[in-house]
Write a structure and sequence with these properties.
- This protein is α+β, with helices and mostly antiparallel strands.
- It has two domains: 54-197, Roll (Membrane-bound Lytic Murein Transglycosylase D, Chain A); 199-337, Glucose Permease (Domain IIA).
- It has six helices and 13 strands.
- The chain has helices spanning 5-15, 25-42, 108-115, 119-125, 158-164, 169-175; strands at 98-101, 139-142, 147-151, 189-193, 235-241, 245-249, 255-257, 262-268, 278-283, 289-298, 305-306, 311-315, 325-331.
Length: 337
């Protein structure tokens, strides 16, 4: 006992009468040795270490941790319910719509650079009037714009330019931050969102009734049985156009259902929103997204999980629409409708 010291001797003497067998020094120290061993293990390879974020988009991690990107990637340079031919900026390699949560100290130019779009693209798609209109916590939809970029030459007017590229005057004014009575000068650069630079025939687009447009994203896989028709009844008033979309004509107020189960990432119930008007975007577990445009009302909010067939809104005539209908896109797969 002398080797244990006076304190340990007392402890052992007190414990011995209560034990049914001899209590050795190794017995006493065993729990401490086990704890030490466990501590050693947890400080080594068994403890998970911090890992770098894995994202399909190499640019998505720029700017800090408060960025949320649907599907892990930014949207390809396409927007609006009609689609376009020429990209204003270089295309992103993805087809997914993205969202970004504004952080303290962010500027709109930095956000635009992060996603490879122009500042006006973000302003236009989010119904923002100026770069000073964003605040920490705001959620921006990254809906990069495609269209025609035109340099004004002698004799041209804004009206003649818009007519030349079959654009929409209000869209051009909004996108370029121009007043209704704006006068353009030689050398000015004007962007015509959704503009057409020459003919763009589309083969095999049944039901098309207007100017033919280039179809984007129509080459995805056909996922049989995954998507359901988002409305009951109605007629297809325009076949594949824009971004892999169809138009389903129906009266205002027709219930619009989720074509497949998933999470709502965008739900806008006001504004032009790049021509979509009131619209909803759902992210699906298989990596695809569905877009429901020109709604008269939305009844789900961003972050809501919906199941196939659940009513998410009602058809309407908002945004760039020439009559009541549902604009329905599938991003990442063939549109079976």
């Amino acid at each position: 006992m002398a080797l244990l010291g006076p304190t340990l001797s007392i402890l052992v003497l007190v414990l011995l009468p209560q034990a049914a067998q001899a209590f050795s020094l190794s017995d006493f120290l065993a729990p401490f040795a086990e704890a030490a061993a466990n501590t050693s293990v947890h400080q080594s390879s068994d403890v998970p270490v911090l890992q770098a974020a894995v994202n399909l988009d190499p640019t998505s991690g720029r700017g800090g941790g408060d960025i949320t990107i649907a599907g892990g990637v930014a949207l390809i340079s396409e927007t609006g319910p009609e689609g376009t031919i020429k990209d204003i900026k270089e295309k992103s390699p993805s087809t997914q719509i993205s969202i970004y949560v504004v952080r303290e100290g962010d500027s709109l130019s930095e956000i635009a650079k992060m996603f490879g779009v122009s500042v006006n693209t973000i302003l236009w798609a989010n119904n923002i009037n100026s770069a000073k209109s964003i605040h920490p916590g705001d959620t921006l939809v990254i809906l990069p714009v495609s269209g025609v970029e035109h340099v004004v030459v002698k004799g041209e007017t804004l009206a003649s330019i818009v007519k030349k590229y079959k654009g929409d005057m209000q869209e051009v004014l909004d996108f370029n931050n121009l007043a209704p009575n704006a006068v353009v000068a030689v050398g000015d650069t004007i962007v015509i969102p959704d503009g057409i630079d020459g003919p763009a025939p589309v083969s095999g687009s049944s039901g098309s009734t207007g100017t033919e447009r280039l179809i984007r994203g129509a080459g995805g896989p056909l996922i049989v049985g995954y998507f359901m028709r988002p409305i009951i009844g109605g007629v297809k008033t325009q076949g594949l156009h824009g971004y892999n979309a169809v138009d389903l004509g129906t009266h205002v107020g027709t219930p619009v259902m989720a074509s497949a189960s998933g999470d709502v990432i965008v739900s806008r119930n006001y504004g032009w929103n790049g021509g979509y008007g009131d619209y909803i975007v759902i992210q699906h577990p298989n990596g695809t997204q569905t877009v429901y445009g020109h709604l008269s009302q939305t009844v789900v909010t961003a972050g809501t999980h919906v199941v196939q067939g659940q009513v998410i809104g009602y058809s309407g005539n908002t945004g760039r629409s020439t009559g009541p209908h549902l604009h329905f896109e599938i991003r990442g797969a063939a549109n079976p409708f």
